[in-house]
Specification:
Number of helices: 8
Number of strands: 4
CATH class of the largest domain: Alpha Beta
Strand order of the largest sheet: 2-3-1-4
Largest sheet: 4 strands, antiparallel
Distance between the termini: 36 Å
Strand content: 15-25%
Radius of gyration: 19 Å
Structural class: alpha+beta
Shape: globular
Helix content: 40-55%
């Protein structure tokens, strides 16, 4: 008997796009993103394009689902299967799917395997410590005297936001050689 996961599921998909079909693929994917959010359990989607000047034809898609069941349902849905068929003439080969777990989402890299968990933990620690000190000295001071619960909710939201969008991308870039 399989267990249903209650935490969000993150899936990284890579696709090779035929030369000259990049703009058409991006347009088709953007349109499909808009309609795919109507399906229950789809929580997020992002397109990763090759860097400017790169000769890579590999595009990435990150999808987030509410649960394992919702992920399975999405990939078996008529809408997804129709989209997959629609873009098959724009792509080379089959897409590669990789489920991302926990810290792996910060450390995903399309060209190398994920680093060992202990290295991901060390890098995360190096990001968390300065962010929590900074947040406690800034946001924490502003919220002094507020309800403990509310102050913690706001402070932790600031920590997570700083880690996700600023600090962890910087830490992983700085430690790239050591990590991989």
């Amino acid at each position: 008997m399989s267990q249903t996961r209650t935490q969000p599921i993150h899936v990284a998909i890579t696709r090779r796009i035929k030369p000259g079909c990049e703009a058409e693929f991006q347009k088709a994917l953007t349109g499909f993103f808009k309609t795919s959010f109507a399906q229950t359990g789809v929580q997020g989607a992002a397109m990763l394009v090759p860097p400017p000047g790169s000769h890579s034809n590999e595009y990435g898609i990150i999808r987030t689902f509410a649960s394992d069941e919702e992920r399975k349902s999405f990939y078996a849905s008529p809408a997804f299967l129709a989209w997959k068929e629609k873009v098959s003439s724009l792509t080379e080969g089959e897409p590669a799917y990789k489920e991302l777990h926990g810290l792996e989402a910060f450390f995903r890299n399309q060209t190398t395997p994920n680093p060992p968990h202990w290295k991901m933990a060390v890098a995360t620690y190096l990001g968390v410590v300065p962010v929590t000190i900074f947040t406690s000295q800034t946001v924490g001071q502003l919220l002094k005297g507020q309800n403990y619960f509310v102050a913690n909710l706001v402070g932790n939201a600031c920590v997570v936001a700083l880690l996700a969008w600023a600090v962890m991308p910087l830490v992983t870039r700085i430690l790239k050689r050591w990590l991989h």
